[in-house]
Amino acid sequence: MQFIDLKAQYRFIQEDVNRRIQTVLEHGRYIMGPEVTELEEALAAYVGVNHCIGVSSGTDALLMAMMALNILPGDEVITTPFTFIATGETIALLGATPVFVDIDPATYNIDPDLIEEAITPKTRAIMPVSLYGQCANMDAINDIAHRHGLPVIEDGAQSFGATYKGKHSCGLSTIGCTSFFPSKPLGGYGDGGALFTNDEALAKTLREIRDHGQDRRYHHPRLGINGRLDSLQAAVLLAKLEQFYKEVELRQTIGDRYTTLINEHCSNIITPTVSKGNSSVYAQYTIQVKNREKVQSMLSNSEIPTAIHYPVPLNAQPIFSAHCNPADTPVSQAVAARVISLPMHPYLEAEDQKKIALTLKEIENRLE
């Protein structure tokens, strides 16, 4: 059993992937070739925004979003501690300070009720993370941001394809960012990412930042980075995008089946909660268990792979802990000690899911 089976997906799209890659090899425009423009147009239409900017990774997308919003040393950006390091590290790389706000215990996303009290005169942006494939409470977050004149950057690295009240993730705020890392719901065969916005001026700035800050060749009105997207990755993503619509539905079916099976067979396992008005793409299917190390070991003995997303909140990481108090975010601390992610991909067989649920039941009975 694979934790994520990318080979199964490739078998469905092999001919189109190979054809598109061959086209890139023949035209030789390996960086920012015509495939990038085609992909940007397709993704902007999918998300429902005016502008998509394809970039080198989801991490770089976050960095560039803050650069475009002129986040400077000494500024503060409010975010969640329960996420991958990229969210916090990009804030710190600009010399700004990540201000960590605790999470909603049901969705694992930032708790909007705690954001306003974290705002100070130094706050320059709010960066919610749409974790595990489900959007944060963007209406509440946007309302707070509007009252305080702050931009909102959605870290949608795990939620591309999810919807919030009928609108797609990454089209819900000032700037949306996503990742095309291979394991993501829409993943390439290497690093890649994208930014989304309806603001024309921001889109222009982001395109300049992506290419070393130049607005035309050898003319640099701003600092930028090498954040360009490879044509080969764009070609792969274009092939995958045709299958993506179906895969989003498959992910939701598999996620719902997991929840039904686990709730039917197990009594002490917490399954994901999808908020009303939301859909999830289940970038991970993550449960909470007691005795996690024992559960993980026993699942491994049954040849069921697992992962932990994430065992240490950012405000408890060595790089941030000297300036943070993990006790300020008790929900994140508690959840980080209990979460475990199960195999999840669009081609996971129902029989494998049943095996996992029954194995969890057996483990639960043995550990009681």
Descriptive report:
The protein has 368 residues and is an alpha/beta fold. It has two domains: 6-101 and 109-238, Type I PLP-dependent aspartate aminotransferase-like (Major domain) (Aspartate Aminotransferase, domain 2, 3-Layer(aba) Sandwich), CATH 3.40.640; 244-367, Aspartate Aminotransferase, domain 1 (Alpha-Beta Complex), CATH 3.90.1150. It is built from eleven helices and twelve strands. It has helices spanning 6-27, 34-47, 58-68, 85-93, 138-148, 200-210, 231-265, 292-301, 318-321, 330-336, 350-367; strands spanning 51-55, 76-79, 97-100, 123-127, 153-155, 163-164, 167-168, 175-179, 193-197, 278-279, 285-288, 339-342. A four-stranded mixed β-sheet has the order 1-9-8-5. Strands 3-2-4 form a three-stranded parallel β-sheet, with helices on one face. Strand 6 (163-164) and strand 7 (167-168) form a beta hairpin. The longest helix has 35 residues, at 231-265. It starts with 5 loop residues before the first helix and ends with a helix.
Question: Which properties best describe this structure?
Answer:
3-stranded parallel sheet, 4-stranded mixed sheet, 368 residues, 41% helix, Aspartate Aminotransferase, domain 2, single chain, 12 strands
